[in-house]
Design brief:
With about 300 residues, the chain is of the alpha/beta class. Helices cover about 40% and strands about 15% of the residues. Bound molecules: NADP nicotinamide-adenine-dinucleotide phosphate (NAP).
Length: about 300
């Protein structure tokens, strides 16, 4: 039997490369081959232009999209042009894949979105809550999810994972903050009382695999750990796992000056997000608590164990 073929948009990035590596370790009968869609050429890759011209390879069985310009790139000013790039790199790529899938026999389509879909008030939100757009980032999440929608009569199973902050040693937020924390320069962001929906990278990758392999998984899933923490609680757990103090706060005004007020919200505000449908689907978390997650990645010397 021919190997299943999974296409990964954004497969060169932190989340995408972890998904690709995890897929490459699957043993028969679950083994798959992967092709990455990237702006840069390379082995086992195709470009977004090639996708536009040729469509998906005929033998594609599943498509994953985790492409997206890094919003928190400190070297990029928060200009209308950059915001457009942030938007297009998520919404347009997802739309392009959804259109390509409509002309194919693809069985599964999995995309990512963000917890900014939910408002940062003190209410708890699950996948069953439908929320209105309230700012640029929430609008981005709504449009991103809309772009992934397939025609009503499509036979492709569609899943969207609304991810919280992804925590792992080799990418994302932890890679940025581990050195300041290691040298005792870490601390809470702003007041530290804002919620910080989070998920360990290995749990997020396993959630993608869970969605890929289980026919009954479809629709929206909150890619967050079951334990709700505030930014101050994360700071304490991470500093304690590193054996370092973390008393130096990052003041709100500094972040707003550095990043722009609209973008700083990502770190200064947080949502209370519950992974209700994830738990109902019998997904097993490896890192359900922030303590267990921090103890796994709070090492300066570390290799991703895939
Ligand atoms: N990391 C988190 O904590 C987190 C949390 C929630 C949601 N997410 C979402 O998950 C996705 C992946 O996150 P990540 O942490 O893996 O990001 P990343 O490491 O920065 O990777 C982003 C990927 O997107 C592609 N990309 C970047 N700019 C692009 C553009 N202008 N057009 C098309 N593709 C572009 C890159 O591919 P090439 O350079 O190869 O083209 C890269 O593979 C993003 O959409 C992000 O918003 C991340």
């Amino acid at each position: 039997m021919a190997l299943k073929h999974v296409i990964i948009g954004g497969g060169t990035g932190y989340i995408g490369s972890c998904i690709a590596t995890a897929l490459s370790t699957l043993k028969p009968p679950l083994s798959v081959r992967t092709t990455i869609i990237s702006r840069m050429p390379g082995p086992n890759r195709m470009s977004w232009q090639e996708l536009e011209i040729n469509g998906l390879p005929k033998d594609t069985t599943a498509v994953i999209n985790v492409a997206g310009q890094n919003i928190l790139d400190f070297t990029q000013r928060w200009t209308p042009g950059f915001k457009q790039n942030v938007y297009n790199s998520r919404v347009k790529t997802t739309k392009q894949l959804a259109e390509a899938i409509s002309n194919s026999d693809v069985k599964t389509f999995i995309t990512i979105s963000g917890v900014a879909y939910y408002p940062p008030d003190r209410n708890e939100y699950t996948e069953y809550d439908q929320c209105k757009k309230y700012d640029f980032l929430s609008e981005l999440c709504h449009d991103w999810e809309c772009a992934a929608e397939l025609p009503k009569d499509s036979s492709t199973r569609q899943i969207t994972i609304r991810s919280g902050v992804v925590l792992g040693r080799t990418g994302g937020m932890i890679k940025q903050v581990i050195m300041p924390f290691f040298f005792g320069l870490g601390g809470p962001i702003g007041s530290g009382t804002q919620y910080m929906p989070w998920i360990h990278i290995r749990d997020l990758v396993n959630l993608f695999l869970h969605a890929l392999q289980n026919e009954c998984v479809r629709g929206i899933y909150n890619g967050v750990a079951p334990e709700l923490v505030t930014n101050a609680e994360f700071t304490k757990a991470f500093a304690s796992a590193l054996g370092r103090p973390a008393f130096i706060p990052l003041p709100e005004f500094a972040l707003k000056t550095l990043l722009n007020e609209e973008r700083a919200k990502i770190m200064l505000e947080g949502q209370k997000v519950i992974p209700k449908r994830v738990l109902e689907s019998n997904f097993q978390y490896k890192y359900p608590t922030i303590k267990r997650a921090c103890e796994e990645f709070a090492w300066v010397r570390y290799e991703e164990p895939y």
